[in-house]
Amino acid sequence: xxxxxxxxxxTMALAVAWLVAGCGGGDDAPRFVAVPPAASQPxxxxxxxxxxxxxxxxxxxxxxxxxDLVSGGDALVEIQWPEGVDPATAKIALDDVDIAxxxxxxxxGRYMGLVTxxxxxxxxxxxxxxxxxxxxxxTNHPIGGPVFSGAQMQPWICATRTAKAVTVxxxxxSAPASATATTxxxxxxxxxxxxxxxxxxxxxxxxxxxxAPTSCTFGITGGNACYTQYDPASMPADSEIADFTxxxxxxxxxxIRVERGTINRTIYAxxxxxxxxxxxxxxxxxxxxxxxxxWQFGASTGFSRFxxxxxxxxxxxxxxxxxxRGFMVAIASLxxxxxxxxxxxxxxxxxxxxxxxxxxxxxxxxxxGDGCSGGSIKQASIASAYPGLLDGIxxxxxxxxxxxxxxxxxxCGELQANYYANDPSGQALTAAQRAAINGHTSxxxxxxxxxxxxxxxxxxxxxxxxxxxxxxxxxDRTANPKGLRCAGAExxxxxxxxxxxxxxxxxxxxxxxNQGVQYGLGALRDGALSAExxxxxxxxxxxxxxDLVWQARRTNAxxxxxxxxxxxxxxxxxRQLAKVPxxxxxxxxxxxxxxxxxWRAYSVRDRLDRDxxxxxxxxxxxFNSSSGSSAPGAALARKAFVTMDAWLAAxxxxxxxxxxxAKVLSNRPAAAVDFCIASNGANDADLATTVGLEDAACxxxxxxxxxxxxGGPRAENVYKCQLKPLALGDAAxxxxxxxxxxxxxxxxxxxxxxxxxxxxxVGQVPVTPWxxxxxxxxxxxxxxxxxxxxxx
Length: 792
Known about the structure:
Elements: E1 6-7, E2 59-62, E3 70-71, E4 75-80, E5 91-94, E6 97-98, E7 103-105, E8 111-115, E9 121-129, E10 132-141, E11 165-169, E12 178-182, E13 201-208, E14 227-230, E15 243-245, E16 251-253, E17 255-263, E18 266-273, E19 292-296, H1 317-323, E20 328-332, H2 343-360, E21 366-372, H3 374-385, E22 392-396, H4 405-422, H5 424-427, H6 431-438, H7 444-452, H8 488-491, H9 493-496, E23 498-500, E24 506-508, H10 521-525, H11 531-540, E25 543-544, E26 550-551, H12 559-567, H13 574-577, E27 582-587, H14 600-612, E28 618-623, H15 634-653, H16 660-666, E29 675-676, H17 706-709, E30 723-724, H18 740-749, E31 754-755, E32 771-772, E33 780-781, E34 789-791
Parallel strand pairs: 1-13, 3-10, 19-20, 19-21, 21-22, 22-27, 27-28, 28-29
Antiparallel strand pairs: 2-4, 4-8, 5-6, 5-9, 7-8, 9-10, 10-34, 11-12, 13-14, 13-17, 15-16, 17-18, 18-20, 23-24, 25-26, 30-31, 32-33
Helix pairs in contact: 1-15, 2-3, 4-7, 11-18
């Protein structure tokens, strides 16, 4: 199916006749490719061939994406001809079909074209001269996916123009076999045309009136909105349209187009400066667009099985900061963590949309990420596992990735929802002692986790999958053991894999483990716990089974389950995060309890220090707020955006051969340093007085977590620790004296030893970037990008 279905205004069908130019110069991989750099082409030998004495042959470059990751049936291609060759004499063929008319030399001097009609699978593109030929294999994937994420999750309920009841099939062996669910409304003008949820793209057009007051609200809705919708078939007169000058000095009419479509079984939307009277082809981008992209990631955590619309607004604070400077803004439901906590799917979707932008609008210079909480997870995870998709990230309400917060979440549940609540020894602990064990200023922090996200680990909770409560197809250990499991490990089963337990139930590879963890160790050392209270705590804490049911024994995760999380790139790695500038806007946590704890920004910093040898690429800008998820004030958000833009522009201009990590460090703006302010940064005056992050005057203080009190690293990226013998004379116990009975009881709690935090975790390995899960869970490196080769 041609992915370029469209509705509204003008049709954007990309035909073979779209001949490309103006996409940048030189042989370097364009920034919009955003995938591992293509392997260098062999240097031409005498006469322009591919080796000493070889006949002159062209070079073929697929520039909209890696040649093996193309989707949607088309690819932007450049052909570099040997010096002195007249391309008019050349033959260009796609699987032996002549497509020479798709190419031409453009004003930038590059010979380019958009190749369409690619079949799913391998396609051979050849360019030939009497003196020599070349060919490259382009592997095309369906516009509905997948590309590298592996087998797509089923069932998956496509969105429809208006919500309606549909029949949903359950897993094989489910009782019942099917049930009725209600679709999500798509916001499009037509229903899906296939089971990949593909539907026609909708375009809507807006202009800013020349008479609009300067006090109007930047957006398209509301009585004071700056923009008014129009029909491009009957445009307002130019005199009625305000002028707009972007950040590179280009002046155009203040016109914006919003594109809403489907890709990879999700719904995406783009907003960009766009005048429908211009050509606006990839070789002639919209005049008002500065070539930059802001990607807005949505918050929260969820494992939905429904196609739905994005949760972020293209015209919110971040989008407005970008659009007013000439940026394009992008959103997609699979990059909203509250819809999709599978960050491989998020990365794949982002790559596919960026390819679409490159082929439809032109070259992307660089991409800035933005998002709070789950939106910060998406940024860090994608930057770590799929470097190049994001060039700079602006996390707020930070978490380093999706699954390591489960460490604190499970610990809080085991401690506060069970030991403190149900065990007489736990009930006897004071609030101050409990807070000391938890690593928090109050027990409200664990309470916030337990009430908000502990249920997200429950595979029987239908709402986690987007279904109503008690939906009959969802897993129940007794009534429906073959039902749909609605937890994160199952949502990512194509990447993380699964196992069948002794009870015959298939479960995703999870990460909960507390073998060898000495809860309250720091509290014992500091005198907040007695030796007996420490022993009773570790005797009574227990653990969770595979269905989030508390049990008296501790949780002992399978080594294979733990290891695959690292192997598959689900734990963010400082080695990869060092490749992007990071500006972390750290709001103050709520004093009474907050899942967005201040220490989380330092978790990322600790990973950078441990993995990359420093954190010069990360800025932490603390501001005072009512909760950790509060948005920064307008002036602080603007300062972060402008600083990130300047940082990336400097990196873009750096033509040295230095690795990207070095370029990030050497091009950091001189004034870009850590700081803390006493307000939320609503206006410029709020930013005039700053103090250091650890200054006593900074209101944003750090805490820790139960696992850190137990001796774990602030990086909080060790699911399952390696063990060492119990040695109660160690300095870690702060000189506490244990009776023989207490020693024996601790030895019974830790028969195999206690955590050795000086060693990596079990199965803990560095991220291997750009894994493909097409061959199954665990992932395989993509390997070298395809290049053109001389053809006989």
